[in-house]
Amino acid sequence: GNSVTQMEGPVTLSEEAFLTINCTYTATGYPSLFWYVQYPGEGLQLLLKATKADDKGSNKGFEATYRKETTSFHLEKGSVQVSDSAVYFCALSHMDSNYQLIWGAGTKLIIKP
Amino acid sequence: NAGVTQTPKFQVLKTGQSMTLQCAQDMNHEYMSWYRQDPGMGLRLIHYSVGAGITDQGEVPNGYNVSRSTTEDFPLRLLSAAPSQTSVYFCASRLDRSNTGELFFGEGSRLTVL
């Protein structure tokens, strides 16, 4: 079945460091891929998405490229800020799962000043 | 623009009690869903609806009941609360059941069952 695996956290970085959070998926065909972010005490919100292979999603300085050959959708940011501290979720949507989002377990990111 | 509104934000129940978590959206979304979030387990789908009068089970439906009498509202009922239902519950909606649509979340309801 479809699944999403993302790196375990917490990930702790200093301000202005480069961020990578790994996400790989298992699915047939071409699912849509998403990154959601959950700030402390809030609900999740969409950060970026990509709906076909080689698409790059971007928002708020974050980027992720849909790599079909490696079944990956890694999240990157060149220079993180304290305000980026949050939990990040990778997810996929596919017709085989009746378009329900399949979620990774989440990665907690802690940015120290 | 309210988006997705959940009430209550916090609730403490005793084992065996029943309660309803309310969810309302003002975006005319067809699709609505309920998730629970537990540490280390990500989000798990409880129930979902693709339109008024249509509901279906998700990954962890046992102990929960839903109905969708209007497009706007999607309440989640706990029939007889158990400590295993202690969790944070999120309601989420999107325009339709498409593959690419953004899911909009409420702020969550933290439930503790003693």
Topology overview:
The complex is a heterodimer of chains A (113) and B (114).
Chain A (H helix, E strand, L loop, with lengths): L2 E4 L4 E4 L4 E3 L1 E4 L5 E7 L5 E7 L5 E4 L2 E4 L9 E3 L8 E8 L7 E3 L3 E6 L1
Parallel strand pairs in A: 2-12
Antiparallel strand pairs in A: 1-4, 3-9, 5-6, 5-10, 7-8, 8-9, 10-11, 10-12
Chain B lengths: L3 E4 L2 E4 L5 E7 L5 E7 L5 E9 L2 E4 L6 E3 L9 E3 L8 E8 L9 E2 L3 E5 L1
Structural notes for this entry:
The complex is a heterodimer of chains A (113) and B (114). With 113 residues, chain A is an all-beta fold. In chain A, 0% of the residues lie in helices and 50% in strands. In chain A, strands 2, 5, 6, 10, 11 and 12 form a 6-stranded mixed beta sheet that branches. The relative contact order of chain A is 0.34. The mean pLDDT of chain A is 94. The termini of chain B are far apart. By secondary structure, chain B is mostly beta strands. Chain B is built from no helices and 11 strands. Chain B is globular, with a radius of gyration of 13 Å. In chain B, a hairpin with a 5-residue loop joins strand 4 and strand 5 (43-51). Classes of the chains: A mainly beta (113), B mainly beta (114). Chains A and B meet through strand 6 of A and strand 5 and strand 10 of B.
